[in-house]
Amino acid sequence: MRGFSCCILPLQxxxxxxxxxxETLTIIAGAxxxxxxxxxxxxxxxxxxxxxxxxxxxxxxxLVLATGVSSVLxxxxxxxxxxxxxxxxxxxxxxxxxxxxxxxxxxxxAYTGTRLLKGLLxxxxxSRDRVTSAHQRRVIxxxxxxxxxxxxxxxxxxxxGFQLSNLLLGAGVLGIILGLAFQSTxxxxxxxxxxxxxxxxxxxxxxxxxxxxxFITEITVNHVRLRNLDGEHVILPNEAVGNRTIINxxxxxxxxxxxxxxxxxxxxxxxxxxxxxxxxxxxxxIMTQPAPQVFPVRFDDSAVVLDLRFWIENPTPQRKWLSVQxxxxxxxxxxxxxxxxxxxxxxxxxKRGEGGSVRIRGTDPTDTRGGQSE
Length: 374
Known about the structure:
The chain is an alpha+beta fold. It folds into three domains: 2-181, no CATH class; 195-248, Roll (SH3 type barrels); 253-374, 2-Layer Sandwich (Alpha-Beta Plaits). 52% of the residues lie in helices and 15% in strands. The chain has helices spanning 2-5, 12-17, 21-45, 51-76, 80-87, 96-121, 134-159, 164-181, 183-198, 238-242, 269-280, 317-338, and strands at residues 206-209, 212-219, 223-228, 233-237, 246-248, 254-263, 293-299, 304-313, 349-350, 357-358. It is elongated, with a radius of gyration of 37 Å.
């Protein structure tokens, strides 16, 4: 801080003598006007080129402007040597104006870097989706933005003579305090980074997270927003998402469905399976490859159960239920045509202590004896 204390009196020389203070204000005012024009130019270019290109052009021009204005002012103040000494972290007595100017340049450079990073990551073409998801690019942008501004802050402190070791120690103590105060929030943020790296789902995927099922509508650093099948929006903290079982039904682009159907014990299961396969082979609601399959899976009380397995593409709940509906209708119609009975539960009653069965008389209106057993 030795240089800071001795720079009060010399401050008047570079700013008020040569060049004049009015000339300095004129340069700064001109830089502000040009900066505004560059900002408007970037907005105007978005109507003719891709937004990310316009953003990169605007950020680059602003950085060039800031660098040029800084060079002009340093040259007019005859402070180029002092600026180089400051940039080299040499503790010498330098002008306060130079320190302020370099501090502004650091933050302008950090801002420009964040705009460039945003243009490259968030406003880029969709071809990068195969490498990184939108959620990953968003998190990378946030991390890069924080890192650039932290570098600008520490660089500014260094310019003004603060010891980085003390700053790091204070930042460590502050980090511990904030970690204890915002434990759940920080846990969700860390879980968000884990989700970014593992990529279990993306926006638009049909997923089941614990007891919640629906479509992912938003992924942030703190939470995941899910729209369930009833139209309700559920917000799940990233920490809770990481601790639950996640079932993603969209990532493969296809989904297998199963429908069980029972046939009478008198029917040949192989023949019934062939008829069922033929009935669903030409349905538009299911995929032909992989081909549908039918397997006898178990003996029920009154039927042999066949398991019909088929695939649907681009799975959604609507496609799922439409395919199941189409398969059931088609198989039921085919079994009716072929005389294959789909039985319902039946019970056989036996007299206690006797081997003969008991037949229950039907409720025929012409039966004057009513429903009596024989």
